[in-house]
Amino acid sequence: MSEVFSATSEDTTADRPASTSAGTSADRPAGRSAEDTEDLGRARAGDDAAFNRLVEPLRRELHAHCYRMLGSTHDADDALQDALLRAWRGLARFEGRGSLRSWLYTVATHTCLDTIESRGRRALPMDLGPSSDRAVLGDAPLADVAWLGPYPDAGLGAGGPAARYEQREAVELAFVAALQHLPGNQRAALLLFEVLGFSAAEIATTMNTSTTSVNSALARARKIVAEKVPAPTQQRTLRQIDDARVREIVAGYSTALERGDADALVALLTEDVTWSMPPLPHWYHGLAAVADFARRIPLTCGSWRHLPVTANGQPAVACYLWNDGAGAHLAWSINVLTLRGERIREVTSFIGPEHFTPFGLSASLP
């Protein structure tokens, strides 16, 4: 997200115009439709159907906000459900001076902050220790770590190409992983300002603090995220590569695994490639270490089948591994690919069938 930061980092104290993708200053009561006004009155009177009509167009973007805050699709599900319940119960407190969208973001942000306080941050294997030089056989999952998860980005940025670019950039894996290193208040301030277009004054009101505190939180958050998020963003990288070429890279990666072709796989990787597999704690950095891991484990562990998907605004592959007992290929991992130019510089394999349901994928392939 370094491109986003460079556009705004010099003026955090001003109440700059809000982004239209956020719907804050650009979506004030004057722009509210008669139908929405009528539904709002009905919802305040206890009509849950009217409330659902008001909320439904915002549900996807609110869910993405919860994911950015929490780093987990399942936590985002729970947080959004809780936030909408809080909003429904507290609708009388919405005075209508601002937009309903802004108010719902406030409720969702506070709900996520409560979750962060009780559960802490989510991690990737890189956060736990150094990389391994050789394949670690028998690597066991760490169940006591809250792991970062992938995000199905279908439907993000429905407002047009520019909105799709911005929304998908804001769920890229490196950015969401970097957010996990921020305290909750800094995480919220950064997302509300940089991604959603709230002004510093609006954020101060949302978070019950001062504008000075918000600007301080933004400065600290930017510094940490800028150190952890490589440039350019994946969205910019993908826009510089022909879509057909991206599909070729994904197909080549899948085919190499299915055929057990180590040379074909290595040819797709950068020299400084990394491969991690949460919830397994060990990870690999550099072509030699990754090639050793690939040859000794995924290329020899059985029969694979793959489906191309997108996750976190990036090309990804749903991996199914053959199971003799089931007589089918079973859901194994969602592999998110990070590209540099036309090569893969990072593979993040999110292991577990629980990741497949949010993508609308089946648990097995016959």
Could you describe the 3D structure shown?
With 366 residues, this protein is an alpha+beta fold. Helices cover 45% and strands 14% of the residues. It has 15 helices and seven strands. Strands 1, 2, 3, 4, 5, 6 and 7 form a seven-stranded mixed sheet that branches. Strand 3 and strand 4 form a beta hairpin. Helix 4 (59-70) packs across helix 5, helix 5 packs across helix 6 (100-119) and helix 9 (184-195) packs across helix 11 (211-228). The chain is globular, with a radius of gyration of 22 Å. The two termini are 40 Å apart. 42% of the residues are buried. Mean pLDDT is 89; it is low at 4-31.
Top keywords for this entry?
366 residues; alpha+beta; seven-stranded mixed sheet; 45% helix; globular
**Count of DSSP H/I helices:** 15
Number of DSSP strands?
7
Element string (H = helix, E = strand): HHHHHHHHHHHHHHEEHEEEEE
**What does the main sheet amount to?**
7 strands, mixed
Q: What is the average per-residue confidence, as pLDDT, rounded to a whole number?
A: 89
Assign the structural class, choosing from mainly alpha, mainly beta, alpha/beta, alpha+beta, or little secondary structure: alpha+beta
Q: Whole-number radius of gyration? A: 22 Å
Amino- and carboxy-terminal Cα gap: 40 Å
> Segments where pLDDT lies below 50 for 5+ residues?
4-31
- What percentage of the residues does DSSP assign to strands (E)? 5-15%
What form results from the Cα inertia axes? Answer: globular
Helix content: 40-55%
